[in-house]
Fold these 4 entries.
Entry 1:
Amino acid sequence: MKTLPTLEEARSQLVSGAEQLRHLDAVALRDERGGDFVRHLERARLAPLRATGLEVFQINVGKLCNQTCGHCHVDAGPTRKESISRATAELAMRVLASTAIPTVDITGGAPELNENFEYLVRESRRLGRRVMDRCNLTVLLAPRYAHLPRFLAEQQVSVVASLPHYRAESTDRQRGAGVFADSIEALRRLNAVGYGKPGSGLELVLVTNPVGAFLPGQSQAALEAEWKRELARLHGVEFTTLHTITNMPISRYLDWLERSGNLEGYLQKLVDAFNPTAAAGVMCRTTLSVGWDGRLFDCDFNQMLDLQTGHGAPTHLSDFDPARLSTRRIVTGRHCFGCTAGAGSSCGGSIA
């Protein structure tokens, strides 16, 4: 299994969420054009930002991953120990059973590496919920996980697979030499069991993010047409939908922005591209993020910054209250400009 060089792994792992937030705030103070996110929400008549329901129950099972990607907002890698326990996984399923939340989104790290992954999938499906697996693709090539394409198909799981680009150079630059070839092989294995095939009902979503300090350049629809054409032509691979996402200025990507001298410029791009329409549809308004330790967050990005649900909302699975959580006030910060820039960005792709 091929992984990226560690990218100064020790350094990237010691930057806490609080330190990242302080650094972003310091950059904002140096930038007179910047301004805070709440002020932009006020101008868009969206302040305070509140949830509008609970539609997605997103479970981050931990930070263990077989890759160490340069853009990773989770700071995941092979040496990470954070991992959801069976007790917390069972608590999450009991909470889910008490609600009508229709979608379970399982993420990581590489969620398939967690020993409770298949339990979470089976139990969520038993409860009649749609399940999404956020897969890095290369994990499917490990002999221990060779059964997963068939398992996922049997459970009718939607596979949401990250792939920076449909050409090897851009993907390997971000993820490591040989990762693109392994990703293509994994996609072929998913195609072989029906994923991405018309009429199969097995959804295969590809997720792409820019390789650099810029926003997605083309519309999601235009990129999807291009990707479908080129992946079929070059590799005989089919997929259902393409999602484009914006790189969030946190964790390893924040570290890269700073080291490359792109931090202030990139943050200003996000601020300048603020889109009120995208802000109105941000994923935190309908998604609840559950941490590997059972703590609750408004989104996976807030989770990585250790910004728990606030303003009086429940903060742990053990005090879960769907009524309070479905209308909770969202905890925001400067990093939120990443979800509201241009066409917007979310776990479901562009927004506007």
Note: Residues 1-14, 29-34 have pLDDT under 50 and may be disordered.
Entry 2:
Amino acid sequence: MSGTKEEQIISILKEKSKIKQKVFSNTYEVFASLKGILKEMEVSYNSQLQGHFSDKSLQYNEVSTFQHELKVAGDMLVFQMHSNIFEFDRDHGVWQISYIQNDKMATYCGIINIYNFLNDSFKYNRVNDLGYLVGRIFINKDFHYFVEGKRQMGFLYNDFGNDVINKESLKTIIETAVSYSLEFDLLVPPYENVKIITVDQIQEKRKNSQQITGKRLGFGFRSDDVGVENVIYTGA
């Protein structure tokens, strides 16, 4: 790159800023579409489940511009768009595909995270309860995308070189995350972890139900990590 340092800096800032603004705009557009899908799912699923449950099985809630929630029975799925744009480290698998090798700017991505919590954690304000990252969607300047996630989440959506995200693929991702979360059950904590409790802890439990709860608290989580390390990035 020729020119003075000042010119080089200005050139880099212009190029990167333009790309990052485009990526942010794309990710924000997808997140807005996600909001519409969640609202449609709330109506559709509840109409099909009417009469089977006393309360609505699905409840959508818009927390903020960058966070939406979907209560599904006893689970809460939190969809969160990060406001920043990221690039992959040099050891990441995306660098191996020709799509990226031919266009380095295609590595800049926005991220939408999908977390799974227990609904009671929010209902009873159990602020120390744990949630788990079910998956995260990466979206770039061309609306190309892939998903890293647990089990099937990490295997169905990884053709970054070719896949362009749309409403249909986004709905499939959401439904896969819901399905995984419903199958990912709350396990009894090991006896050794709960056999002793202090007076202070029991008094706190009286007020706020403060015992930390998570679906796999105290248990190894390795068996559910399949899909994250084994994602294969394809595409021309």
Note: The helical segments are 5-49, 98-101, 119-123, 153-156, 167-183, 191-194, 199-208.
Entry 3:
Amino acid sequence: MPWPLPYPFELAFMQRALVAAVIVGVFAPLIGTFVVQKRMALIGDGIGHLAFAGVGAGLVAGVWPVWGALALAVAGALGIEWLRARRAASGDLALALFFYAGIAAGVVLVGLGGGLGSNVLVYLFGQPLTVTGGELLVIGGLGAGIVAAMLVLRRALFAVVTDEEWARVAGLPVGALNATLAVLIAVSVVAAMRVVGVLLVAAMMVLPVASGQLLARSFAGTMRWSVGFGVGAAVLGLALSRMLDTAPGGTIVLVAAGYFAVVAAVRRGRLPRLGTGGET
């Protein structure tokens, strides 16, 4: 039975979409704060394309596409980190290698699995309005795991993304922490793709953080503001998509972009810093 919520969330499917979108609005900007600090804002795009290849692999193998996306996204994230850590390729080049290989593999595998049907488009562009109870449990479980890991490891991860050399001198397991962050990014992409789609998931990691950086004076403050903007974009974007009959995932991201435009205008157009300082 639906909860007694007002329009536009009075229907059960809208309430499932709301819960899923709010969960994404929490964990995507949370981990995006570390991604932006590490100056790898496009990593979500690269891993998203690998997740798309995983969706195609799942269709070919006859398994739930989410499991295929999760396996390939995690493997790809670790591969990107392996190349970067061993300086076999720069961060941008490693992303590009996996970016193009992932999208090419996705096109081939989706074709083998039956083409771009509606069951593929919901992962490519997102469609929270059709999220089922089972999918909501998966999104919630993955989101809770991401948030828990971030809370436990935030100080160590902050040290690593801010200054790897200092973290290594301080005795932190830099390699393991970088690999953990890569896996968490991959899980975030997969958990969010049902809501905003693999093509826009990186935007939910970056845009709220861009707004948060304009207002916060510390890394912890940026995290709090970013989550606030992420949740706000999820709720308002979903409401507007119902009232205007627009695509929910795209509307949520446009609201997040609108927040940045408003905050930047209030701050007299100052662009956000590339990194954040302060204590976690």
Note: Residues 12-199 form a domain with the ABC transporter involved in vitamin B12 uptake, BtuC fold (CATH 1.10.3470.10).
Entry 4:
Amino acid sequence: MTETTKAPRLELQGVDDNKLWVCMTGVDGCGKTTGAQYLAARLAPRSKYWKSPHYDWVRSMMALFGKDQQGKDAYSDAVTFATSHRAEQYLLRKWWVDHDALVSQRGVIDFYTFLAAEGFSRRECDTLLNWRELPMEDKPYAGRFVAPHLIVYMECETERALGRIKKEDKWEFTEFLKKLEGAYDEFFAKPPALFERTKVIRVDARPSPEIVQKRLDDIAMDIRGAYRGP
């Protein structure tokens, strides 16, 4: 994994058949939804925005396992999200039939950071996700679990992010989000083996939306320079 703050010569590794996955992540309230949708629009016409977790059943399970920091069933959360991320690998192949670039709000990176904030070790995360074994025959990426080719990390401190949240879920409280900030730092300092070829761009999400959009414009231009769909 290589981090960069500005990428005029961005090189994306591991891109097969011109099929690209860009993941936008960060703590709740950092502006992922707006940013990911904007970036997908800037990569049009053959791009698709999607939100992870994609499936409604995942949200149903999340609600069942607890709504706040008290009494949460963290292990059931972990198994549910591992299953969800493995299932999303099949969706990637499906969406790449009609799209070259996929831009997601969250992704498999959040499996590692959220579970780390809940006390799971890196080895436990690898075991639950079991990313080394994914029987997949369809191209592109036959037989491979695909990590995002590019992660855009929206940096925003917990207190500011919480002030932007309109509807709380079971993770949106100060103590957990501070743990999540630390989990992101640990992830980028020593990423899991799955992300060996993933590039990372950090975006300061604290300024005005106009300034953030200008930064995303630059990123979109860098991506178009590094990646050419058919």
Note: The helical segments are 32-42, 56-64, 74-95, 108-117, 122-129, 158-164, 174-189, 209-226.
